[in-house]
Amino acid sequence: MKFFKQTINTVPLQGQTVLLRADYNVPLKKDGSIDDDFRIRASLPTVKKLLADGCKVVIISHLGRPEGRYPKLSLEPIAQRLAEYLGESVRFVDQTIGDKVKMAIKRAPKRSVIVLENLRYYPEEEANDSHFAQKLAENTGARYFVQDGFGVVHRAHASTAAITDYLPGVAGLLLEREYTTITKAMKAPKRPLVAVMGGAKVSDKIDVITEFISVADTIIIGGAMANTFLAYKGYAMGKSKFDTDENATLDQIYAAARDKVGADNVDKFIILPTDLAIGHSLDSHEQRINKAADQLAADDIALDIGDKSIEKVVEIAAGAETVVWNGTLGYAEVPNFAHGSARLALALATNPGITSIIGGGDTADFVLNWDARKGDSFTHVSTGGGASLELMAGEKLPGIESLLDAR
Ligand code: ADP
Ligand code: 3PG
Ligand code: MG
C-alpha cells in the first residue's frame, strides 16, 4: 500500500536543516525519570536517516500537559536518552522559539541533532497558533518540516497543523509505517482478520468497534468492555466495572452485527467470555477464582476473562492471519488478572505467521513489559494511543492531512 503523503524518502533533504516533530510524550516515574522509552526508540530510524543525509535535525515535542513552564516536564532528560541511543552528542536548548534557539542552531554543525524545550510550555502550541508556528519555522531556519510524532497526529496543534502553512511538511519513517501497517490491516487485511477488543470503557471505543463490525471476521471482547456486553445481555455482574449507559450503543452494535452475519451467527461473530476470573478487591495479591459468566455473586468483581475463555481466545487467534488487538483483556496491572492478556501475547509472539497489530496506550505498555524483545515479537506495536484508535476507526488525522500529497 503506497503512502499518500510525501516522506523523507521522496524529497531532497541532503544537507538541509529540518524541523522534526516527534512524540516524546513518554511515561515518567514519580521521581520524574523516564519510565519507558519506547517512543524514543521508535523515532531512531528517522533521526538516523536524516543524519545520514547530513541534515541539521531540530527536534520538537510535547511532554505531558503542563500549564506553563513546569520544570519536571522538561525535554532535557529525553535529549540525553536520545544521545545515548544515537551514540553521539545532542544539543538541548531550554527554549522553543526565540534568539537562543536561533543562535544554537546557527552554531551547530551540519549533521547534528538539537532538541528544543517542551512545546507545551507555550499555550500557543495547543491553540494551533499561527504566529507561534511561524516563529518555529523562522527561528529554526528549517527548509522542511518532518512529522514523525504519530502519537500526536490526531491533535490539530501548532506543531502538527499550523506549522505546515510555513514549511513544506513530509512524513517521517515511523509515521509512514504506523499509517500503512494499521490502514492495511483495516482495509486490505490477510484474512481471517480477528479483532480483539478489551480495556476499560465501551464509550472510548465505539467508533473502532463499529469499524470492526464491518471489516473483521471475528471480534473477541474481553476486559471491562466484556462486562458491559454481558450486563447488556442480562448477566448479573456483581461489583465488576462496566458501563451502565451504553444500551443504545450496544443495540446499534448488535443490529449492525446481525445485518452482517445474520441473527443466528451473531454470537459466533462477537465472542464474549463464557467464564470470568473474579476477585474481591484490586489488591496486588488478590486471588484469582474462575466462575461461569452467569454465576457471579453480588460481591464478585470480574477482573479477567476466565481460563476456558482464554483457551478459546488463543484458539481463535491461532487460526487468524491478522490479529488487531486493542485493550487489555483484564485488570493486567495485577499479575493474577493478566493471564488473558499474557496468553494472547504469547499466542501472537509464538505464531510469527500471524500479522499482529497492537494499539492503545495501556495495551502497548502491557505487551512491551511482557515481551523480552521489547515489542519485536509482534508485527507492530503502535506508539499511538488515541491516534491509533482514530486511525483504526477510519478517521482523518489532522497531523497527517496537513502534509504534502505524494506525487
Ligand atoms: P488502551 O489504553 O490500550 O486503549 P484502555 O485504556 O481502554 O486500553 O483499557 C486499559 C485499562 O482497562 C487498564 O487500566 C485495565 O486495568 C482496565 N481493565 C481491563 N479489564 C478490566 C476489568 N475487568 N476490570 C477493571 N479494569 C479493567
Ligand atoms: C499521547 O500520549 O496520546 C499523545 O502524546 C498525545 O498527548 P495528549 O493526549 O496530551 O494530547
Ligand atoms: Mg488507556
- Going by CATH, the architecture of the largest domain would be 3-Layer(aba) Sandwich
Largest sheet: 6 strands, parallel
Give the oligomer, counting copies of the same chain as homo and different chains as hetero.
single chain
Bound molecules: adenosine-5'-diphosphate, 3-phosphoglyceric acid, magnesium ion
Q: Given this structure, which CATH class of the largest domain is correct?
A: Alpha Beta
Total number of strands: 15
Structural class: alpha/beta
Using the coordinates shown, work out and report the CATH topology of the largest domain. Answer: Rossmann fold
What is the gyration radius calculated from CA atoms? Answer: 23 Å
- Percentage of residues assigned to helices: 25-40%
Treating each run of at least 4 consecutive H or I residues as one helix, how many helices? 16
